[in-house]
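Kindly review these tokens for lecture notes.

. . .
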Amino acid sequence: MKKAQKLEELRNKLLADNPTPELAAQATQAVFGSGNVDADIVFIGEAPGKQEDKTGEPFVGAAGKFLDEMLHSVQLDRNDTYITNIVKFRPPNNRDPEPEEKAALWPYLLKQLAIIRPKIIATLGRHSGQAFIPDLRISADHGKPRRLHVTLDGKQESIMILPLYHPAAALYNGGLRAILLEDFSVVPKLLTQEISK
């Protein structure tokens, strides 16, 4: 079975299982993920926002535009990557996802990653980063790649995790814009290293 088909089946399973009924009930739709199913890099945010809830696509608002700009800065296109969030439904009023919501949706994210098999996972923001690196301090650890063991399909896989500030942070704090672009500049080198392994 093709990866796209497997991801579609997983999306349908998520909707059927409905692990976060209250969250799903107040959202317009699930925002499962989009992009290249054979991507070497997957970007993971925390949860969809208002625009994402409307369109069903991740990172389509102002933060998504800045993500596109960062991708272009390293000669990448959104179509070269896969983008998703830990939480697949917009929390009311864009509040932070609750720990139980993240825990309930975590297995679906791991299944997404098991299907796509990226070489690098770039986490966008503190919530996403701490899901993989519990002791992450985004202000100190941003832009510092680290290799971690992640259990995919019951097997321990060694994957490169690159914690980044959330693109939305740069919209509120202009100083983070340059930091994010600088952190992003390591992506091509990391991809080359990981692909040649």
